[in-house]
Design a protein that fits this description.
Rossmann fold; OB fold (Dihydrolipoamide Acetyltransferase, E2P); 19% strand; single chain; alpha/beta; 3 domains
Length: 661
């Protein structure tokens, strides 16, 4: 590891050790204090019946005394014995038997080396921690005059950000403000990540990702599209007339398909907004122009549902949508591979599509659904099956604008912000398990009136690690609670045929209630479904809950989403569910999810190689994100994009630029 790596091990917190107090002035337990004095009554012992060694001592000055105790730190005795006067910093606690105040495991420094100031505290790394890590940081800071700043000075000056050397010095050795109020303000800014030094490191991290995104975009814009397609001549079998939003997005996509460079577009649309119809128009245009179309979905269930939807849409065109997943039998797989190699086709599949044995003749359009479940590598691997095919990425998981700018910044954005006519908002309520009997009566009434109900569990089987309801432990109980109602089961461990039968039975009404895991989150479209019961909803993120809620309310019936929670629910989980119940707006929920859980949980930020964000927080640093994108574009104009990207590559996990070459 390098000195640069060491300096990037930034403090986990900072402590004000600028003012020592007399042992006599320590007044209340539970707070850290800085005490100066001489050591006396030093003992090293081993309490009876215990294996660990304990050091005890008393620190005194002319005004009073304060005991100190150190557990499993026998070496402290030698350090205390040789120091005429020391500074101790630690937490004061009250002894349980005597009620006397004492310092517990305080840090020890000789008076001559204890400089007053704001002190950096680090998470332990291997054998290094405490004062030893601080000493190493001090030595590393001495090498900073030789540190090359990866970002050009003119970019930093334009943004009002400090140089890297200045930023690292301010983080590891913060300046000491003169007044107590100024010290408190500095500590608050450090803890909140608002200091110029912290903003500089956050900017570098966001700039690294923005440059990687810009690099991919530049390479794509220099390419020539494999297929240039005009408006489709054939007609799809549509159930509804396209909404105004669908017509707008279809026009945007067709304009891209007619251009010289390959399309790269992200299609965001809430659950039920009609993304498949939009993709089908694009697919028809490319197929008529002589290109193959490949649609990749993250699960076999979703791929199967897409193939069924496309079969209905393409029924009058003579085009057969093919299905290629890991569950396809050997004979059918050979037939499909032969058809794909022989000429332009429409194929739907999972990551099985990127296998070496799959040859896609004249690949013209790649459609990736629920992109956040893949990485950039997956979609690039599929695109590499052809020569500069068009790319359409679809997601029903609303992505906050700030996150979309980073995770999908190389793609143009289209949004389907309108649902088909006649849809009613889903009513969402929280119910405790002790109220479940009324809920199951309601479910029986809904099924008797022609509706259907999902009951979703976070787990298939009971877990010792997680306190959450599982499908297996509840299946027989629910069958007893729902007499006269046919109950089906659907989860990811079932074979393809079993899954298809379970979905078909639910869709036809042979099954009134479907017990499932989150495999129903995407891809199961049953207009009659009017109730979604989610067990242990506190185990899900807001965006995932929104996806599950989107499985109901697709027909004329009033739909309900019922969150079945334990009798006692932690405050944070309750607040999150209250947010979910308060709005049906997926983008609003995605913003809340970003605040509560961070980007990695929502939309695959890690796909750009960033192994989670160490310094930046998208909910806090949105202004820096915009500036990083602008700086990336400017560096591209200056011809310095690759040079700066290489210097910032350590922010991209392993130092490799995704999509390079």
């Amino acid at each position: 590891r390098t000195v640069g790596d060491l300096l990037m091990w930034v403090p986990s917190r900072w402590e004000d050790r600028s003012r020592a107090v007399s042992p006599a002035a320590v007044g209340e337990p539970g707070r850290p204090v800085l005490v100066r004095g001489r050591i006396g009554a030093l003992k090293l012992g081993r309490p009876r019946g215990r294996g660990r060694r304990v050091v005890t001592a008393v620190v005194r000055d002319g005004e009073g005394t304060l005991p100190g105790v150190w557990f499993n730190q026998a070496w402290i005795a030698r350090e205390l014995k040789g120091a005429p006067e020391v500074v101790l910093y630690g937490r004061v606690e009250r002894r349980s038997r005597t009620g006397q105040l004492q310092l517990v495991n305080p840090e020890v420094s000789p008076v001559e080396s204890a400089e007053p100031g704001i002190v950096a505290v680090y998470r332990r790394t291997g054998p290094l921690g405490g004062r030893r890590l601080r000493r190493l940081m001090d030595q590393a800071l001495e090498t900073l005059p030789d540190l090359e700043d990866p970002v050009p000075r003119e970019i930093l000056d334009a943004l009002g950000l400090p140089g890297l050397r200045e930023a690292l010095t301010a983080l590891h050795r913060p300046p000491l403000p003169a007044s107590e109020a100024e010290r408190a303000a500095l500590l608050a800014d450090l803890e909140a990540g608002r200091t110029p030094a912290q903003r500089r490191l956050a900017f570098d991290e966001l700039l690294a990702v923005a440059l990687a995104v810009e690099s991919v975009g530049q390479r794509r814009r220099r390419q020539r599209a494999a297929v240039r397609a005009g408006p489709p001549r054939g007609r799809l079998e549509l159930v509804f007339e396209p909404t105004a939003a669908q017509r707008r997005v279809i026009a945007e996509i067709l304009a891209d398909l007619a251009g010289p460079a390959p399309m790269a577009r992200l299609l965001q649309g809430d659950v039920g907004s009609g993304k498949t119809v939009v993709a089908a128009h694009a697919a028809l245009a490319v197929l008529e122009a002589g290109g193959t179309v490949a649609l990749m979905a993250p699960t076999e269930l979703l791929a199967e549902q897409h193939r069924a939807s496309l079969e209905r849409l393409f029924a009058g065109t003579g085009i057969e949508p093919l299905l290629l997943t890991g569950s396809v039998g050997a004979a059918e797989r050979r037939r499909i591979l032969g058809l794909l190699a022989s000429g332009p086709r429409l194929v739907v599949g999972t990551h099985a599509l990127v296998q070496d044995s799959v040859r896609l003749e004249r690949l013209g359009l790649v459609v990736v659904d629920e992109q956040h479940r893949f990485g950039v590598a997956h979609r690039m691997a599929l695109a590499a099956k052809g020569r500069a095919p068009h790319l359409l990425v679809m997601t029903a998981t609303p992505i906050p604008r700030s996150l979309a700018l980073v995770a999908y910044g190389d793609l143009e954005l289209s949004v389907l912000d309108e649902l088909p006519p006649g849809r009613r908002p889903v009513r969402t309520v929280v119910r405790r398990r002790d109220q479940a009997d009324r809920l199951w009566r309601f479910v029986r009434q809904e099924v008797a009136a022609g509706g259907r109900a999902y009951v979703v569990y976070p787990l298939i089987e009971e877990s010792e690690e997680l306190e959450a309801q599982s499908l297996a432990e509840n299946e027989e109980r629910l069958r007893r609670l729902l007499p006269g109602v046919s109950v089906g089961v659907l989860h990811g461990r079932m074979g393809r045929r079993e899954r298809e039968e379970a979905v078909a039975d639910f869709r036809s009404g042979r099954t009134g209630v479907l017990l499932s895991t989150t495999v129903v989150e995407v891809g199961v479209d049953v207009p009659e479904a009017s109730v979604m019961v989610i067990e242990s909803p506190e185990r899900f993120g807001l965006s995932q809950l929104h996806q599950l809620r989107g499985r109901v309310g697709r027909g004329p019936r009033q739909a309900w989403c019922v969150l079945l929670v334990p009798d006692v629910l932690p405050g944070a989980a309750r607040r999150r569910l209250e947010v979910f119940c308060s709005t049906g707006d997926g983008f609003e929920l995605a913003e809340a999810d970003l605040e509560l859980r961070g980007p990695g949980e929502i939309a695959g930020f890690r796909q750009w190689g960033a192994d989670g964000l160490r310094f930046a927080r998208l909910s806090r640093d949105r202004d820096l994100l915009e500036r990083a994108r602008g700086a990336a574009a400017r560096l591209g104009e200056m011809g310095k994009l690759d040079q700066v990207l290489e210097r910032l590559a350590p922010h991209l996990g392993g130092g490799e630029v995704p999509g390079g070459g």
